Amino acid sequence: MTDTLKTLGWSNHFIRQVDYDEAADPPERPVRISAVHRSRLDGLSAKGAESLSPTASAGMYAVGDWVIATGAAASEPLERTTEITRRAAGEDSKPQLIAANVDTLGIVSSCNADFNVARLERYLAMCAASGCLPLVILTKADRCDDPQSYVKQAEKLSPLLSAIAVDATDDEDVKRLNPWCSNGQTLALVGSSGVGKTTIQNRLTDVVDTTQDIRADDAKGRHTTTNRNLRPTFAGGWLIDTPGMRELRLVDAEEGVDEVFSDITELSAMCKFNDCAHITEPGCAIRAAIEAGDLDADRLERWRKLEKENRFNTATVGENRGHLKRLQKMYNAGKERGSAKRKG
Ligand SMILES: Nc1nc2c(ncn2[C@@H]2O[C@H](COP(=O)(O)OP(=O)(O)OP(=O)(O)O)[C@@H](O)[C@H]2O)c(=O)[nH]1
Ligand SMILES: [Zn+2]
């Protein structure tokens, strides 16, 4: 594997999917998608910047995808390591692909009025469902007396979770994020508007987007980020920035919810009744844990809310399943054609 491909994030996961013999310098080459337009894909390969035309509908590609390009034609995306989706805003219930092959999801929140445990849990569930590693980035540490108390609160949510408090306006401090965006590693930032995603991005990459001052009274920001892009970081990795995701809802994230709330799912397995609603049933392990002070009643309520929301969204999305199945079929047929072509 050349350094260039490795720096782009090419790995054994993708090598296993294609017979790409780099040494032979074949006309087909792996390209990482850096931007998705309506009928065109921007990408990066060992040869440099590429402009490709998609063979599948553009909606099937995401920033971060790997494709095999033959001439200027892009194959369907290779099987992804991770996939970040969300339910589109408004009445449209189709899951929307946001980014692919992201190693770490940086969940950005600030050490002020934006810090909200329920919101963090929601992002963590989304992260768990996507397959990315979560990193909670707590900005505005310089404006807070005790940033470490926020780090502790965040890390309490999951044993697998790392949290880091930074002053996003300080160049040196932001370099502490380098381990997550060097060596071809891809980092994506999510979080409410105004928490500092653009401020971080401006320091990790040489792309400068405008940031906007927020009103001091409510800690709410205004949208300044408008497009998604795969951008090289100074540290030798990649950053994908997505627009403020205030409308984040869960899609098929049941697995994610279970993972984030594993304490509750484990307890509920010990309830006397399989279908225990944890309200008034005798032998309820969850009520017992709350009474014993081992489980926070608020956390149970947050779990209920997220679970219910996820169930509702998944049901609505289910109505679109026929459509998705057809797409999947097309995709698989294309993949077979693609691999036959590559082999032949
Ligand atoms: N003091 C301080 N200010 C910060 C920090 N992070 C962000 N800010 C300020 O907060 C404001 C909003 O930051 P942005 O980076 O635009 O926020 P964003 O998350 O990109 O917002 P959207 O693009 O709307 O999603 C700007 O004025 C930043 O300078 C920080 O760690 N410390
Ligand atoms: Zn129970």
TrEMBL record:
UniProt keyword Lipid biosynthesis, yes or no: no
Protein location: Cytoplasm
Main subcellular localisation: cytoplasm
Domain of life: Bacteria
Keyword NADP: no
InterPro entries per the UniProt record, alphabetical: G_CP_dom, P-loop_NTPase, Ribosome_biogen_GTPase_RsgA, RsgA_GTPase_dom
SUPFAM superfamilies per UniProt: P-loop containing nucleoside triphosphate hydrolases
Pfam families: RsgA_GTPase
GO CC annotation: cytoplasm
Keywords associated with the record: Cytoplasm, GTP-binding, Hydrolase, Metal-binding, Nucleotide-binding, Ribosome biogenesis, RNA-binding, rRNA-binding, Zinc
Cofactor(s) of this protein: Zn(2+)
MF terms (GO), sorted A to Z: GTP binding; GTPase activity; metal ion binding; rRNA binding
Residues that hold GTP according to the record: 139-142, 191-199
Coiled coil (residue ranges): none
GO terms classed as biological process: ribosomal small subunit biogenesis
Residues annotated to bind Zn(2+): 271, 276, 278, 284
Cofactor note: Binds 1 zinc ion per subunit.
EC number of this enzyme: 3.6.1.-
PANTHER family documented for this protein: SMALL RIBOSOMAL SUBUNIT BIOGENESIS GTPASE RSGA
Task performed by this protein: One of several proteins that assist in the late maturation steps of the functional core of the 30S ribosomal subunit. Helps release RbfA from mature subunits. May play a role in the assembly of ribosomal proteins into the subunit. Circularly permuted GTPase that catalyzes slow GTP hydrolysis, GTPase activity is stimulated by the 30S ribosomal subunit.
Subunit structure: Monomer. Associates with 30S ribosomal subunit, binds 16S rRNA.
Family statement drawn from the similarity comment of this UniProt entry: Belongs to the TRAFAC class YlqF/YawG GTPase family. RsgA subfamily.
Protein name: Small ribosomal subunit biogenesis GTPase RsgA
Source species: Octadecabacter temperatus
